[in-house]
Specification:
- It is found in: Nucleus.
- This is Transcription initiation factor TFIID subunit 2.
- InterPro entries: Aminopeptidase_N-like_N_sf, ARM-type_fold, Ig-like_TAF2, Peptidase_M4/M1_CTD_sf, TAF2, TPR_TAF2_C.
- The relative contact order is 0.08.
- By secondary structure, the protein is α+β, with helices and mostly antiparallel strands.
- The protein is globular.
- The strands form 13 sheets. An eight-stranded mixed beta sheet has the order 5-4-8-2-1-11-14-13, with no helix packed on it. The chain has a five-stranded mixed beta sheet with strand order 16-17-18-20-19, covered by helices on one side. Strands 9-10-15-12 form a four-stranded antiparallel beta sheet, with no helix packed on it.
- β16 and β17 form a beta hairpin.
- The chain is built from 32 helices and 42 strands.
- The longest helix is centred in the first third of the chain and has 22 residues.
Length: 1308
Amino acid sequence: MPPTGSDPARMNRKKGDKGFESPRPYKLTHQVVCINNINFQRKSVVGFVELTIFPTVANLNRIKLNSKQCRIYRVRINDLEAAFIYNDPTLEVCHSESKQRNLNYFSNAYAAAVSAVDPDAGNGELCIKVPSELWKHVDELKVLKIHINFSLDQPKGGLHFVVPSVEGSMAERGAHVFSCGYQNSTRFWFPCVDSYSELCTWKLEFTVDAAMVAVSNGDLVETVYTHDMRKKTFHYMLTIPTSASNISLAIGPFEILVDPYMHEVTHFCLPQLLPLLKHTTSYLHEVFEFYEEILTCRYPYSCFKTVFIDEAYVEVAAYASMSIFSTNLLHSAMIIDETPLTRRCLAQSLAQQFFGCFISRMSWSDEWVLKGISGYIYGLWMKKTFGVNEYRHWIKEELDKIVAYELKTGGVLLHPIFGGGKEKDNPAPHPHFSIKHPHTLSWEYYTMFQCKAHLVMRLIENRISMEFMLQVFNKLLSLASTASSQKFQSHMWSQMLVSTSGFLKSISNVSGKDIQPLIKQWVDQSGVVKFYGSFAFNRKRNVLELEIKQDYTSPGTQKYVGPLKVTVQELDGSFNHTLQIEENSLKHDIPCHSKSRRNKKKKIPLMNGEEVDMDLSAMDADSPLLWIRIDPDMAVLRKVDSEQADFMWQYQLRYERDVVAQQEAISALERFPTPASRLALTDVLEQEQCFYRVRMAACFCLAKIANSMVSTWTGPPAMKSLFTRMFCCKTCPNIVKTNNFMSFQSYFLQKTMPVAMALLRDVHNLCPKEVLTFILDLIKYNDNRKNKFSDNYYRAEMIDALANSVTPAVSVNNEVRTLDNLNPDVRLILEEITRFLNMEKLLPSYRHTITVSCLRAIRVLQKNGHVPSDPSLFKSYAEYGHFVDIRIAALEAVVDYTKVDRSYEELQWLLTMVQNDPVPYVRHKILNMLTKNPPFTKSMESPLCNEALVDQLWKLMNSGTSHDWRLRCGAVDLYFTLFGLSRPSCLPLPELGLVLNLKEKKAVLNPTIIPEAIAGNQEAAVNPSSHTQLVGFQNPEDDHLAKEASCNMSAHQQGVKRKADTPLGSPLEPGQILEKNEDSSKVKLKIRFSSSQDEEEIDMDTVHDSQAFISHHLNMLERPSTPGLSKYRPANSRSALIPQHSAGCDGTPTTKPQWNMELPRKGTGIHVSVSHLEGKEQPPLEMSVHTAAAAPLSVFGKEPASSKHSEHHHHHHHEHKKKKKKHKHKHKHKHRRDGRERGRGPLAFPSPAGGRSARSPSLYRLSRAGGPAPACRAAYRTSTSSAGKMIERKKKSPSSKHLIYIIYTIET
């Protein structure tokens, strides 16, 4: 029920001062989504939506909504037909004629295209005009109901159909469909306001075949069968206000399981997987209990649903009251390795139910708060479930990841602030994509963003205490749940949105502490801290002189000022010291508590209160120090390189009880290959009570040390005797005991040790024969009959061990390797791998782990030259139909082959797969793997780098991936890795259309370039007889579409007045018919009227033209297009009739020019009148351009129509002299842009500083005089229209018969 009793004018305001100002002139209160037909055969969906909105401004006359891919049939507002325009600039970012190929240009165009339809800026792809009959209704701020009929045919994103090609009905085949996507992607499957900040209540109805189940958000109210019992409709109600972005759907022949512990929780899986589902979800109720307990708050929704589906977009996707998981997370009780991973996924999705679904965000710059809180409470769950060691290990892992990423790429910014002159304190860390919008982010950046967000929450907890932290979360949740129950007070709902400022205010209210410096350091800035620590002990003063240096000049680093904890373990105990890191202080004196007294036998107290005996013979006689740790609690996002003696690292490894310290010691000991290090590592391996991950790391460190000590090593190979003692028969040491994996710690060690041993090398750099025999024996005598757990991961690791033992082949006098003359050891390895692969065909292992390891091992054999390098095996395993893990492993091998063998054919095969593979995840992974392991990079020459590849990748990211944000950003990443930011080096230089004479500061036309297409282009003139309707809107206010942060440019768009009939059968303008034209992949607009409105004169204001919008937004690399309607402009050029007007770069608002265009109903002439505007702006770059012959250009000074109607034009122009005067001085400039014509001009000017390009449209004015042009800095350009025809003007000079190119000039 839509709210009625509230005062709509107050709906945009929130109580208190967290004020949420909606960017939209209306408040959405309720939405109905009804999908009444789903066809799995055709992969199509038909349905309608109904949005209930309250206007918040009196003169609301157009409504912008989001919709992608959907075909819109009809829009009605309060049962009256409404005209609409559909325009999506993200379909094709840069227009196809453009020869621009540099990434800077693309990124700016893409960011502009995304903000042109960004709901958080009040924009959208679908623009609906409110019928004039309802204007009075709107002025009284009464409710509007917008009813939209739509269909979706073979969607490429947003909804994913999985239809196995086997026999039987759809339900028998296990066909299913589910919604998916990255961030706010709901617009891909139904029209909505696709913003996290627009909340409303929902009614969802889905009609499906009787054998299918539809799962969606909220409570299932009823299921109604049709009369013939062949179909049924599921009715869901979601009474908690939720954003469209958190709405989801899954339809399939699901098996249903009601959770035995919590009846409001229901689980769904595909047929025949019910036993796995029971086991996998049996633990979920404990996660619920944990979160409800720490948050002291009930789970916010009345029900929770988990759906496990195939071909998932991501492993976990959380939506309001339901989560969609990959079916590959399901496992039985026999599987060890997958269990903790799946539980972590379940816990993660539940944390996001509280923060992310129930509590949403105000804007993209507040995303870090939600990701941070959900990641933080998930960490608390991990600490409780897996223990403190696992938790600290995870924090260290995450910290290492974010540090490595920021140092490599230049930083991750959690809270991007836009505009407001904050640019200096808030630099964009990434050159090749914009961070102002989630849809322009690289996927890897977004993953790291989430990682950094939860680490920063942990830093806040360190500062204010966990108790206060949980109180803040509880406060946010209780405010939100109070607001969500206000059914008729929709202005209260903004309490359910979190903002950075609101969150920080809660913290200071609850804890009374000021955390502003911490926020400034980690949230408002990007970068991590890099410390270098070294020390000396001063025996005289008994002080430790510690020197801590910082590197804050490298990319991705920042300067740290503040407290830093240092822990010193002395003979008398462990002592904590807090140092104050100042601007320039480096040296810190720390007093020591204990005198050096190694001769007295006394136990040494450790940090945790434990007292231990130590052998102190290794330590320095003069110093009481055992080891030193800088920032042991990881209270700074940092990388620490500290120098201490090898015996200190050995003591730290043996006796420090913190797993992070032990791991640091293991990494450091790789640099000290001594018998003492060997002994310390062996002792740790033998210690049962040592954390298993530390012991696993010790295995690999020991292998490295053994290889460095290869000439002095005594005894059997490293770890062999240890493994024999732990896992082999007493009587026959080369036979392994029957498997018993009851102790998980020893299971992980048993799996890891052989893999590390295989890395051992002898003096000749070969794997020792006895190690290889030992591994082959482990495989041979492996017996899992009495084990209650599966050994598939263990066997897979044995194959990895075989692969690790392979060393490069030594070729004798260039003989060709064939399978007959294989090295005998390699033959044994290859036979094992072949046997395993064949066994897998008969008895597949869980998740096909063994096949995956075999494929990797074969690639290792190929790379080392033992078997012929050939990708065909991998290509067959990578085909659609194999299990996804196998496909990824095979594709990884093909990517590697492409790089090593520089194979253009395989690169093409991979890119074809990126375009055509049915599974979105696989396409994403291929781009990701190519980026991580590229066939070549921007800094090297490669035969693979050619013009065709540049075009192919450009096309892929420009228009081929518009249906999937993640895929497009992946293509951008790959393009950046291969070609860098500027124009790829393999492209030919564009021919210069102008010859610059620098001495005389002139530019003369290059006589060698004569466009051939002009001659045959006469037909492309606007055809005056095909009158088409263009529907527009009128809006008294300026439409501020977006602001460019660098030069707050607001683009004002002005419409065209135009009266016309549409005779039956006249072709609609391609710019207006909403039909997807498959080959050109352009979307056209469709304008509908009810018959009564046919004659109505309509004003058009701000019809979004994609390219026009972008060209305004791009103050980069753009050249002027031809103003006005050209005799040679093709009729289908999309924005021929949409004038553009933008304010000057200084941000001064400008009034709109009066553009009038009338199409008489019967005549054939086109009357155009345009007011001329004086430009007073001084261009930053000056250049004179002289025409080759001084032809009179007066006609072109005034917007030309087709030349035979120029008299009309003069006559009309005369009428408008008065208007002209009125506006003469108000405008900076005028500029009419043809969106299709984005030719890469013959001359590229560097973009001047300040974000204003040399070709910024705001600096152009049409010269009305003939003869030599005044000082100007733009030039003639060649470009082709979408029809591939030349669109330059040419006019025969009456005096000279020469072809004269018209040159646009700027009055300076």
